[in-house]
Amino acid sequence: MKYFKLSFGKKAARNKLLTPQAFAERYLQALKQRLPEMDLVLSDEMEISCPQRPGYRHNLHNAYLAYKSDPERVDETISMYVNGIISAFRPEQPLEKEQIIPVVRPKDYFDYAKEHGITELLRDPYNEDFFILYMQDSQFSLASIKEEDFLPLGVERNNLLELAKNNLRNVVSEMRVYNDHGLCMVVAGGNFESSLILFENIWTKEYFPVEGRIIIAIPCRDLLLVAGSDDPAALQRLRQEAERSYAEDAHAISPHLYEWNGKRFERFEK
């Protein structure tokens, strides 16, 4: 089994931080260098939009949080996030089995899709709040897959999740963990942080040396936070950040906390 490369962030040097606006402008310049053909616009709310992709918004809030945890690696952090979202700005490609990746979406995502005429999406249930949605990552776009588009590939349905996870390992080769007094933030490129809950082998004390059982929050697509069940202070901060991010950030998933049971995450009610 292929494992992720793991690195731990350093404690932030608070007196040398870029302002949110300065960070956003630096991020924008890095993205423009990779996409010179696109007209990229930065808003006062730290969101990047593109007229060639109507409706698309890329919020930089979580990238800035990652930067603040390790300011000496600002360019590396920006590069990681840019690599993770650059595919959203480019044209679609025909589906190949090597392009199928799993992402986590809330159940109400599919109600929204149905209301807009999008049905029969390729997906699997995960727990009471989430589904695993299979998407096409062509390096130029990230798009949902319909059941009818998947069938001609000749892949056994029972093997789909493992195939998709192996594909995602090739996309997300590094996972960085920032530990701030028991509250951990996981960074994996800015698009696939929530998908990391699908990799059973990483949910150990080697990766997350927290006190007690592993508790997580995934309030939005690109924010994965971890704390321990026996660390009341970190657990309170985890709950507060989950509620804040779910209410304020783009691509919301869930305001709840979840506990690792050895196979998957289930709702944590305490």
Describe this structure in words.
This protein is α+β, with helices and mostly antiparallel strands and 270 residues long. It contains seven helices and 14 strands. It has helices spanning 20-34, 61-69, 74-85, 107-115, 147-150, 160-171, 232-248; strands at 5-8, 41-42, 47-49, 57-59, 100-106, 123-125, 130-137, 142-144, 174-180, 183-187, 214-220, 223-228, 257-260, 265-268. The protein is globular, with a radius of gyration of 18 Å. It starts with a strand and ends with a strand. Mean pLDDT is 85; it is low at 10-14.
Strand and helix layout:
Elements (H helix, E strand, L loop, with lengths): L4 E4 L11 H15 L6 E2 L4 E3 L7 E3 L1 H9 L4 H12 L14 E7 H9 L7 E3 L4 E8 L4 E3 L2 H4 L9 H12 L2 E7 L2 E5 L26 E7 L2 E6 L3 H17 L8 E4 L4 E4 L2
Parallel strand pairs: 1-9
Antiparallel strand pairs: 2-3, 3-4, 5-7, 6-7, 7-8, 9-10, 10-12, 11-12, 11-13, 13-14
